[in-house]
Design brief:
CATH topology of one domain in chain A: Alpha-Beta Plaits
Radius of gyration of chain A: 24 Å
CATH class of one domain in chain A: Alpha Beta
Chains: A alpha+beta (about 170), B alpha/beta (about 900), C mainly alpha (about 325)
Strand order of the largest sheet of chain B: 15-14-25-24-23-16-17
CATH architecture of one domain in chain B: 3-Layer(aba) Sandwich
CATH topology of one domain in chain B: Dimethylsulfoxide Reductase, domain 2
Largest interface: A-B, 50 and 48 residues
Oligomer: heterotrimer
Distance between the termini of chain B: 67 Å
Shape of chain A: elongated
Number of strands of chain B: 37
Structural class of chain A: alpha+beta
Distance between the termini of chain A: 86 Å
Strand content of chain A: 15-25%
Radius of gyration of chain B: 28 Å
Order of helices and strands of chain A: HEHEEHEEHE
Largest sheet of chain A: 3 strands, antiparallel
Strand content of chain B: 15-25%
Helix content of chain B: 25-40%
Largest sheet of chain B: 7 strands, mixed
Chain lengths: ~170, ~900, ~325
């Protein structure tokens, strides 16, 4: 009983405290760089698409709002289409965590409302940016074993040159 | 059964199992790489180490490789022993040392045995900080992609490719950690079983190239249990679909049929489903004579009007259409007007096969039984090209002698290297009599090369030597007589003798000869198995449904007002001169899935669903009725042929069609009409099958992109389609748990994401599936079966002056009409050829690749010469032109082509 | 005569308008105040300081489809919100804001009329819950019936002390009798219990068990939408005004107060209780249903009886004031 009265008192005291509400949009809130907002696809330091279409973001997505199709050019994997249905997205960031190439990243931008829900379906051209996003140095193909244009077999990090199987040397 | 203890718990296994197999069979998670149920153990990877204890008092134990350790009653093992656990962790760590950082860009990722095993041993962080060895890849043709960096050197690929499937062009090169698995040079893998490398390889060295082109992860694809439609063997497949496209076909384990493997025709032949040649809308011939699209409703109305118009209506079925579609056509046009729609020669052979196999006189072996035979005669057949999986089974069959030797030497059967070394060149007797060389010749005891007539005579002679009451062959050459005696002795000495022949021998007498041998063996109280291959997926089913002359020419013998042609290009079945006049007078309705000469001639074309858009039941050459289920549910105007026929029938006032709502209705009517199909409805669960009131999910539980796949078209997600003919839900919703084996949409078990998960669905490793192998055999032996000996014995083959006996030589790639439309198969199709004996070629002065002309079935053909020295003189082999196979065998004269021809 | 009727009608109509505006404004006041109590501004976008939010909400409710679920009993479904509006508005008629402002503030059975009307109010919740034909609604209706019938008892008994002291059921008389001493002093226990009972009668938080958002999903008015829901809503806010005004009249000397005009005093005192209602909502969690009933029957009932006993004893024992 007494605790209820005390609660009433403390709640009453809140009348005299500052509002924590930020009056968006007149007043823009501070968003940390890691805020989970609009999703982007980044490029590696060489300017190539980072996404290798591995489907891990799609499978990690709890609302199944990512859909893509793998295609390949000169041994490099790309998404033929990459679609995020933002009308379903819950901005949980699981896709970013699942991405093995740092391609998919969430940005501190949440102002993406639309009057027409169809406009919330973002395709690859809407998602792909020109830069590297939060991870400036990472280049997946520099550590992967695949041969891609500009990086032959054995030229990745921690790789020896390809073996000549006809050599008799031990 | 043998009892053994693992970590204090008692399990049971077959006494001749090895410990690994016993543990996996008991449901324990023991990692392994080099062992495979079909390949046996070699102990190469050291991954399955367990602790074995000498007795109840032994607390120390010894580390053993489970796959190389025979099981003994009461033996005690530990998987959880810390030493064994750390040993396995170390093994995987060093296997992973050179493994590249590739998983995101690897087609195997997500269904990778190496990933599974790495997770199972708990090796999560790489400690190795030095550089990795790399390899260059090879281009291995249109089927298989090569990424050698990923290799962990388990040797499964070469053991399968060379030892199991008899391929020669894949091998291991170099030494120690430089070992390289590939060909001596770039080039397509020659074996027709190369596709299995994608499933055999525990990681991503060999992957499916066609799948990579339209790639999706395993968890993202709907799976539908299906039956291969590219030959008569009836291999079980799983069709994987995403976004309305068939992405790939993978093996679906069936212990009695295809086991763990598929041939490349079946695996890579699905391209016709999405090919440009596909008929997608109804087409009607307009006033200008050109086909124009029309709505389904109008198409049915116009079809019904044709049905009502009266006159003689004939229905031509198809050996590649399901039982349901064929039977519905038979009901629609009436029994007397229904024809099988095969060539005259094939019809005769099929009629014989149906007669012999349904008599119950000889057992039709399943492929598993073919593997277990201990003497076999292949009569007139090129099995590797006509029925590749039967050839693979024959290849295992010759090991029976080796296994018998090993048993004597107390070497367990799974000791693969031991058994093979012990057997050396010794093989069970396999006799091959065929006009041209086959890819089984390397394991044959004796190869007999002769013209088909002589092969028939050899067959009759063998029968007569087994049972003297069988009709004897007069004036047999002494060599042939000796061979016949040798074959007869071998078959009589065998426990499980096997005779293989089939339609591909293109001579009904060959089948009569093969039947005579089986009958003779039966008369001698043997238990013969008689495998008679049929060319198409439902040839036998259709043959069992028709009686009397049912070939295409018989169909058009009397004029018809309307011809309804079901999934059949009759120009592959009969010559133009037989068809053209009939097609001029009759109106023509064609139901088919791909454009053909037939559909171009039709007045009305109805887009029939292929195996990918409908379900159905097929009867394989084993007489096994098997059901396939629909994988693609995308909205389209294509529907199962029986639905078109039923709807048109209802519109035309046919009462019988009104009860056709699902496949099950037609199947039930079929079973009622033909006693031989009485069991067919039990081939697989019907549409109304439910577990706990739930349908079976066709999509894996991790299916992704549900709310984005179609969002580009419309962001509002449509209601999922309903599967009208199958117990499957079209989504991931439904019952998860033990489901009937015929309904396994995918194989997945906790911690087992790769195809190796199938072990969790088998009642015994490498044996039957839990709940029995899918499908139901329609034709079993009967003790009271009577079938008299066939008595017509042809005269010996006599070459003619300037004339050649032309036989059709089957080819695995290209002969099948449907798979020949798939791009990867086309890439592997050799150019058509006219094969000549070298002496014959010299006689007429022909050189290889020279173009020669001949006339066949009223048409002139030009083909390039191929020299095949093994061909009998006077016989030419024509291959790569399946469209003229119906006119073969025939006497032809060969001339130089007219100028300007190619 | 006709002038009296016209004046009476005018009085009623003005009273109605005043009530509606007050109830509407109250929703805005509540939301703003609730906001401030929770360190946020509350609705502040529509109109100055968000005061037109009320209009926006009203328009929204009016334009919603007037929907009756197909499984509901349509007649009773429509009747229920009407009952809830009518009973609270009738009850408020007997409240004398000042000796002159009020509709029938001088009714000789005013207090009984108030109790009768609030008793009838139970029907709205019970019938709404029952006619919705929905298990949550039904549960909500059952809870409402039990809760309101129970707390009716203590509320009525808590007022017996006041009636004893005033010797009248006429609310104007009761206010007059508090000229020197507000009854909150001699009847403190009665005051507290009456207010608690009032909160329960209006099923306001923390005693909103019939609605129980978390377990019943709006309880008896789950199926209501549009203006029918609006009527429940308005009735609830008029109920707050009613209980606050009643407390003012019965215990805080109604319009009496120094310096300021009587109506302002009445308004201030009523406003205080209204704010207290809102503070209660902001601060206290909802009790469990059984705790809530036990609290009523096992604590409040004995206390009220004790209060009557002591009041009676003191009235008999002490010399009557002249």
């Amino acid at each position: 009983m007494l605790s209820s009265v005390r609660t009433l008192w403390y709640t009453f005291l809140h009348l005299f405290q500052r509002n924590v509400t930020v009056s968006y949009p007149e007043q823009m809130p501070y968003l940390a760089p890691r805020t989970r907002g609009r999703i982007i696809l980044t490029r590696d330091p060489d300017g190539e698409e980072r996404c290798v279409s591995c489907y891990l973001c799609a499978v990690a997505c709890p609302v199944d709002c990512i859909s893509l199709q793998k295609t390949e050019a000169d041994g490099r994997w790309y998404p033929e289409h990459f679609r995020i249905n933002f009308s379903r997205c819950i901005f949980c960031g699981f896709c970013e965590e699942a991405c093995p190439t740092y391609a998919i990243q969430l940005t501190p931008d949440f102002e993406m409302s639309e009057y027409n829900r169809q406009n919330l379906v973002y395709e690859k051209e809407d998602l792909l940016i020109a830069g590297t996003g939060k991870y400036p140095d990472y280049n997946f193909y520099r550590v992967a074993g695949l041969a891609v244009p500009g990086k032959d077999k054995g030229e990745a990090a921690h790789e020896r040159p390809p073996i000549d199987i006809r050599s008799l040397m031990p | 059964m043998t009892h053994f203890l693992v970590d204090g718990k008692t399990y049971t296994a077959k006494p001749d199992d090895n410990v690994l197999q016993a543990c996996i069979g008991a449901g324990l998670d023991l990692p392994y790489f080099c062992w495979h149920p079909a390949l046996g153990s070699v102990g190469a990877c050291r991954q399955c180490a367990v602790k074995q204890y000498a007795g109840a008092d032994d607390a120390t134990g010894t580390m053993v490789m489970a796959c190389m350790t025979p099981l003994a009653e009461g033996a005690r093992f530990s998987l959880a022993d810390p030493q064994a656990v750390s040993f396995r962790a170390s093994v995987i760590e060093w296997l992973m040392i050179n493994h590249p950082h590739d998983c995101p860009v690897c087609e195997e990722g997500g269904e990778c045995h190496l990933q599974d095993m790495t997770m199972m041993t708990g090796h999560a962080y790489r400690r190795y900080r030095f550089s990795k060895r790399t390899h260059r890849n090879q281009n291995l043709g249109p089927f298989i992609k090569h990424e050698m960096n990923r290799c962990i050197a388990c040797y499964r690929c070469t053991r399968f490719y060379r030892d199991y499937a008899g391929g020669r062009d894949l091998d291991v090169f170099a030494a120690h950690d430089h070992v390289y698995f590939g060909r001596h040079a770039d080039g397509a893998l020659e074996s027709e079983f190369a596709g299995n490398l994608a499933e055999i390889c525990p990681t991503g060295v060999f992957t499916d190239k066609t799948f990579s082109a339209r790639f999706a992860r395993k968890w993202d694809m709907r799976g539908a249990p299906s039956i291969c439609v590219h030959c008569g063997v009836g291999c079980n497949t799983t069709v994987n679909e995403r976004a309305g496209e068939v992405r790939r076909i993978v093996n679906r384990y069936n212990g009695s049929v295809n086991g763990y493997f598929l041939c490349d025709r079946g695996r890579f032949g699905h391209g016709f489903v999405g090919a440009p040649s596909r008929i997608r809308t109804p087409l009607a011939r307009g006033a200008d004579g050109k086909p124009a699209a029309l709505s389904s409703k109008d198409a049915i109305a116009s079809f019904a009007a044709m049905l009502r118009a009266g006159g003689r209506i004939i229905g031509i079925g198809s050996p590649r259409a399901s039982l349901e579609s064929n039977f519905s056509l038979r009901v629609l046009v009436g029994q007397g007007n229904f024809y099988a729609g095969v060539s005259a020669g094939e019809a005769a052979s099929l009629r014989l096969i149906a007669q012999v196999q349904s008599s119950g006189a000889a057992r039709i072996p399943s492929l598993r039984e073919v593997e277990r035979a201990d003497a076999a005669l292949v009569l007139g057949s090129d099995v590797p090209n006509a029925a590749p999986l039967a050839a693979l089974a024959l290849r295992q069959m010759v090991r029976a002698t080796g296994f018998a030797l090993a048993e004597k030497a107390k070497i367990p059967h799974w000791q693969d290297a031991g058994v093979r070394t012990l057997a050396g060149p010794l093989r069970s007797p396999l006799f091959i009599a065929s006009p041209a060389a086959t890819r089984l010749d390397d394991i044959a005891h004796t190869v007999y090369r002769a013209a088909p007539a002589d092969i028939v005579r050899l067959g009759f002679a063998v029968a007569a030597r087994i049972d003297f009451s069988a009709p004897a062959v007069a004036d047999l050459s002494s060599g042939d007589a000796a061979l016949a005696q040798k074959i007869a002795d071998a078959l009589l000495a065998a426990e499980n003798p096997l005779i293989v022949s089939g339609v591909e021998a293109s001579d009904p007498s060959v089948i009569e000869a093969a039947a005579n041998i089986a009958l003779a063996l039966r008369a001698r109280q043997k238990n013969p198995a008689l495998l008679l291959n049929v060319p198409e997926c439902n040839s036998l089913g259709l043959a069992l449904m028709t009686d009397g002359p049912s070939d295409v020419e018989a169909a058009f013998a009397t004029p018809a007002a309307l011809a309804i042609v079901l999934e059949n290009d009759l120009f592959r079945r009969a010559g133009g001169e037989a068809l053209d006049p009939a097609l001029k007078t009759a109106r023509l309705v064609v139901l088919d899935h791909s454009q053909s000469e037939m559909s171009l001639r039709a007045d009305l074309v109805l887009p029939a669903a292929s195996f990918a858009e409908s379900g159905g039941t097929l009867v394989s050459s084993e007489g096994r009725a098997q059901r396939f289920y629909q994988p693609i549910f995308a909205e389209s105007e294509m529907r199962a042929a029986w639905r078109w026929l039923g709807e048109a029938g209802v519109a035309a006032g046919r009462a019988a069609c009104e009860t056709w709502n699902t496949e099950d209705d037609i199947l039930a009517a079929l079973a009622k009409t033909f006693p031989v199909f009485a069991a067919a409805p039990r081939a697989a669960p019907a549409e109304n099958f439910r577990v706990a009131g739930c349908k079976i999910p066709s999509e894996p539980h991790r299916f992704s992109g549900r709310t984005a796949m179609d969002a580009a078209r419309n962001v509002r997600e449509p209601k999922p389609p309903v599967s009208a003919d199958s117990p499957f839900s079209t989504t991931m919703e439904g019952f998860y748990g033990k489901i009937p084996p015929a309904l396994l949409p995918y194989t997945w078990a906790p911690a087992w994401n790769s195809v190796q998960a199938i072990s969790k669905f088998q009642s015994e490793i490498g044996g039957e599936l839990l709940g029995g192998d899918p499908g139901i055999r329609l034709l079993e032996t009967r003790a009271d079966a009577t079938l008299p000996y066939y008595t017509f014995i042809p005269n010996p083959f006599a070459p003619r002056e300037k004339m050649w006996w032309a036989v059709f030589l089957p080819r695995v790639f290209g002969d099948d009409e449907q798979s020949a439309l798939a791009a990867p198969i086309r890439a592997r199709m050799a150019p058509p050829a006219l094969a000549l004996n070298d002496q014959d070629a010299a006689m007429i002065g022909a050189i290889p690749q020279q173009i020669l002309a001949f006339e066949i079935g009223g048409a002139r053909k030009n083909l390039a010469v191929e020299i095949r020295p093994e061909l009998p003189r006077g016989v030419v082999g024509i291959s790569g032109v399946p469209a003229i196979a119906h006119a073969l065998p025939a006497w032809i004269s060969i001339t130089r082509p007219e100028p300007g021809a190619t | 005569m006709s002038r009296a009727i016209t004046a009476g009608l005018l009085n009623v109509v003005l009273g109605l308008i005043f009530l509606m505006v007050a109830a509407a404004l109250l929703t805005w006041i509540e939301r703003r105040l609730l906001g401030f109590l929770q360190d946020r501004p509350g609705p502040n976008r529509v109109g100055p300081s968000g005061v037109l939010q009320v209009a926006a909400d009203g328009i929204k409710l009016l334009f919603k489809q007037d929907w009756i679920p197909p499984f509901a009993d349509p007649g009773i479904f429509v009747l229920a919100p009407a009952i809830s509006m009518v009973t609270v508005m009738l009850a408020i008629a007997v409240i004398p804001a000042t000796p002159v402002v009020g509709i029938i503030g001088n009714l000789n059975v005013g207090l009984l009329f108030f109790l009768a009307m609030s008793g009838l109010g139970v029907y709205s919740a019970v019938l709404a819950g029952w006619s919705s034909n929905n298990k949550y609604s039904l549960l909500g209706g059952m809870r409402a019936a039990a809760q309101m019938v129970s707390y009716e008892v203590f509320m009525g008994l808590a007022l017996v002390g006041v009636v004893m002291l005033a010797g009248s059921f006429n609310l104007t008389t009761i206010v007059h009798n508090q000229l020197r001493l507000w009854y909150v002093v001699p009847q403190f226990i009665g005051f507290v219990i009456f207010f608690i009972g009032g909160v329960a009668e209006t099923h306001r938080l923390p005693f909103d068990l019939p609605e129980g958002e978390s377990e019943l999903g709006a309880g008896f008015h789950t199926e209501y939408s549009g203006m029918k829901f609006g009527m429940f809503f308005v009735a609830e806010y008029i109920g707050i005004l009613l209980v606050s005004a009643m407390t003012t009249v019965l215990f805080l000397g109604g319009w009496y107060g120094p310096f300021l005009p009587p109506f302002v005093w009445f308004g201030l005192k009523t406003g205080f209780f209204v704010c207290f209602f809102i503070l209660l909502r902001a601060a206290l969690p909802r009790p469990r249903y059984d705790q809530f009933m036990a609290f009523g029957w096992k604590l409040l009932l004995p206390l009220t009886l004790l209060n009557i006993l002591i009041t009676g004893a003191l009235m008999l024992g002490l010399p009557a004031p002249t």
